Automatic annotation (TrEMBL), chain A:
Signal peptide from the UniProt entry: none
Classification via PANTHER family: PROTEIN ABCI12, CHLOROPLASTIC (PTHR33514)
GO cellular component, as recorded: plasma membrane
Main location group: membrane
Complexes and interactors: Forms a stable energy-coupling factor (ECF) transporter complex composed of 2 membrane-embedded substrate-binding proteins (S component), 2 ATP-binding proteins (A component) and 2 transmembrane proteins (T component).
Gene: ecfT
Subcellular location: Cell membrane
Annotated protein name in UniProt: Energy-coupling factor transporter transmembrane protein EcfT
Protein source organism: Bacillus aerolatus
Automatic annotation (TrEMBL), chain B:
Coiled coil (UniProt feature): none
Record-stated family: Belongs to the ABC transporter superfamily.
Organism domain of life: Bacteria
UniProt KW Translocase keyword: yes
Biological source species: Bacillus aerolatus
Subcellular location: Cell membrane
CC annotations in GO: ATP-binding cassette (ABC) transporter complex
Main localization category: membrane
Record's protein name: Energy-coupling factor ABC transporter ATP-binding protein
GO MF term list: ATP binding; ATP hydrolysis activity; ATPase-coupled transmembrane transporter activity; cobalt ion transmembrane transporter activity
Amino acid sequence: MMEKMIFGRYLPLQSAVHQLDPRAKLLFIFGFVIVVFLANNALSYAVLAAFTFVLIYLSKINIRFLFAGLKPVIWLIAFTFLLHIFLTKEGDLLVEVGFLKVYEGGVRQGAFISLRFLLLIFVTSLLTLTTSPISITDGLESLLNPFKKLKLPVHELALMMSISLRFIPTLMDETDKIMKAQMARGADFSSGPIKDRIKAVVPLLIPLFVSAFKRAEELAVAMEARGYRGGEGRTKYRLLHWKWKDTVALSLLFVLAAVLWRLRS
Amino acid sequence: MKEPVISIRHVNFRYPEQTQYALKDISLDVAKGEWLAIVGHNGSGKSTLAKMLNGLHYPEEGQVTICGFSLKEEFVWEVRKRLGMVFQNPDNQFVGTTVQDDVAFGLENNGVPHEVMTARVKNSLQRVGMLDFLNQEPHHLSGGQKQRVAIAGVIALQPDIILLDEATSMLDPRGREEVLSTVRQLKEEQDLTVISITHDLEEASRADRIIVLNEGTVYREGTPEEIFQLNEELIGLGLDVPFPVKLSRVLRLEDFKIVSNHLTEEELVRELWTSNFKK
Ligand SMILES: Nc1ncnc2c1ncn2[C@@H]1O[C@H](COP(=O)(O)OP(=O)(O)O)[C@@H](O)[C@H]1O
Ligand SMILES: [Mg+2]
């Protein structure tokens, strides 16, 4: 559950998108976020949408999973859409209900912005759906490596992320256990007024924190016993391989940018 | 005694801001290739001693030498390469997101080149019988399997000594047997020295030698037979005597002619069913 919240859900399939280097995918998304803003008319948005759907097709991911990723932001999209409809006063007047006036330009703007949102979310979900969390971590570590010179603790951040990933299921199990233990003692987590329910969470959180700190301490000792002494002089078991496919994938983004540049008005 | 791989001389240690010493004037040797069991009640200083052997604590007084390295800050990483530890809680020593990542962790820390690393990870996992679980995540493994992965992580570094600090105490009987037979097999394959800290006298009875710790001191040292002669004394120290030993003793008190305190059930059973023929 928590894993889903943090990193989306990884679907280990065999596809061209899955096999790309995580660095290529991360750079691609970074570029895509910028390129999306080049589209500004119906034709350029159509090209952008078509491009995105080709990506989805190539990834072999069922579109259902992408819509699932939309759920948390659907209200945000709806809200921006409405905001544009009611506040933009351009073009012909379409409808008038009382003091609310809807203009043609508002509908267009609203639709474009919502589409832009939608495509961005699709593409970022595609990253987490096609890349295992640990690969994303490796990719980030590798991409951020130059920033080590600026004293950014890149290795430590990556280690933190991978340890968190490793312990999420363990702590979820533990939460479940403590919850059941407290329920057996008469705790009620699911009914009553909100104030009582918040109070009921305290006997859940305290044992969880105590145990998490104990785990952290033991883990630190075990890591030290296994020779861990920071990132200095460390080699890596997981190596990333940049292949020509990765270069091709990134070039596609430049092609897209060029096409949008031509089509925009 | 063969050349010692570990020698401890007059070691005293207390935790910061404590008046009580956790270890008091401890002296002992561990011979190359032996299986040494350390037993003692809760809080007798077993884990403290174990951590001292790995440079996780330094003695306040006294001398610790491991594989020829005097235990000082400058040699601690050398010592950690030669003495691998497996801890009690299988979950809290699993660092990697998958089995192979976890085994590689110690190798990464020691700057082992990538090609060597992949070969060693495979080899170690194969030796503990976990090669089929290469990409498995820890929460899909049983406790015994996690401990075997931890052992693989230790032997990947090709240590001389492996130290198990109650490594089987959180496992079910099957997991316990799984882990112990893995260690036994590894010990036979190479000249590994094993130190197993344990509550379980059954487990200790299979060691070459037992050291009993009590209140931070070495209370007794001897072969399992010698130690189990102590009987009530052991119970007084908060240790439980294995069932076959107890039974042999009681039978002897009831005037059955049992030759010795048997350490294992098989030995006792054999003596019992043949005892009538001897009359
Ligand atoms: N981190 C610590 N700080 C202070 N005292 C400790 C700490 N760890 C253990 N002790 C004390 O040191 C003694 C020995 O503990 P330990 O070596 O863990 O025993 P064992 O492993 O035999 O159960 C106990 O009295 C314990 O309370
Ligand atoms: Mg202990």
